[in-house]
Amino acid sequence: MNYFHGGNIYSASRKYRIKEERIIDFSASINPLGVSRKAKATIRKAIKRLPNYPDPDVEALRRLISIRYNISPESILCGNGSTELIYLIPMAFKPHGVLIPQPTFSEYERACQISSELRVMSYELKEEDGFKINPDEFISLITHHSSLSFNMAFLCNPNNPTGHLLKKDEVMRLCSAAFERNIMVVVDEAFIDFTPEESIIREASESRHVICLRSFTKFYALAGLRIGYAVTHADTAKHLKAFKEPWTVNTLAQKASIVSMKDKTYIKNTFEVIASEKEFLLKAIKKIDGLSPLPSSANFLLIRIEDERFNSTNLSEILARRGMLVRDCASFGIGNRYIRIAVKSHAHNAKLVKTLKGIFGETGFKDS
Known about the structure:
Layout: H1 9-16, E1 24-25, H2 37-46, H3 59-69, E2 76-79, H4 81-93, E3 97-102, H5 107-115, E4 119-124, H6 135-144, E5 152-156, H7 168-180, E6 184-188, H8 201-204, E7 210-215, E8 228-231, H9 234-241, H10 251-262, H11 264-286, E9 291-293, E10 300-305, H12 312-321, E11 324-325, E12 327-328, E13 338-342, H13 346-361
Parallel strand pairs: 1-11, 3-4, 3-5, 5-6, 6-7
Antiparallel strand pairs: 2-8, 7-8, 9-10, 10-13, 12-13
Helix pairs in contact: 2-10, 4-5, 6-7, 11-13
C-alpha cells in the first residue's frame, strides 16, 4: 500500500523549481474560498492567547457542535484533525480484524497496521461499477464472515477517491447488521459537509458500536490548523479519550473552527461555488477526448484516462511541470488510469481545462 497523499506543495516546489504561491494544488480537496474571513480575524485576535495552554477539553467547540446537531457534548471528542482519531481508534479498541473497502483513504489500513497486530480484510470495489460501495455486498461480508475474522469496519462516506455517496438509510442498515455481529463501524464523514442531510452524526451519538468522524479540513479549509472530531456514545467517547494525548487541539484551531461553523455567509457561498464549479468541470472534461470523469458527491472528481498515450503518473508529471498538482490515484491501488482533481476557483478550473485540452489535443504527443 502506497501512503502518498496530495497537498504537498512544498516538495513539488523544490522538485519543479516553482514558487509555492504559484502552484495550483488540485491534489488536495480544500474549499477554494479558503479560510472564512471571520475565522482569519479571530485567528489574529487569538494570537495573544498563545502563551497559554489550549483548553484540553475543547469545551466551547464541543458545546457548539452539541447544539448544532442536538447531541450530548459528552459524545464528542476533538482531535488534531480526524487523522489523529483514525489512529487512536484501533489503539484504544484493539480489534483483531478490520474490514476496509478498497479503494479508500489509505490511513485506515496504516493506522490498523501500526497500532497492533491484526488482520486487514479488503472489500474490493469493482471498476466496472465505478468503484461504488454496494451496501448489500458490504452487509453480506459482515453477516457471512465469522466475528473471528474482523470486529471493526471502516467506511468513508462520501468515499475518497471516488466521491460515491451512500444514503443515510443505507449506512444505518450497514451499521445495524454490524451491531448484530458485535462489529464496530467507523464512518468517516470528512466530505459529508457537501451533502449534510446524509450524515449519521445524531445516530452515532447514541450508539456504542458506531463512531462518526468529522473534519474541518475540506469544507472549512482549516487543513493547516489540524482539527476534527469524533461522535459516538458517551461511554465509547470516554474510553477513546482515555488513550488520547492532552492538548492536541491548539488554541487557534479551536477558535477558528467555532467562528467558521457560525459563518452562515461563508457556508452559503461554499455550497454555491462548489455546485457551480463542479458542474463546470464535469461538462468541460467530458468534452475532452481521452478523459472520462465520474459523478461525485464531494468537492473533487475522479477521472479515468482513456487515451493510451497517457497514464496517471506521466499525466500528473506533465501537469506538475506546468504548476498544477493533481492526485495520481495509482497510490490508491487502482492501477494507473485514474487521477483525482479538486474543485477549485473558476479561474483555476478553467486553466486546468485549457491545459488538459492542449495536452490531449496534441497529435503525436511526446513528453519532454
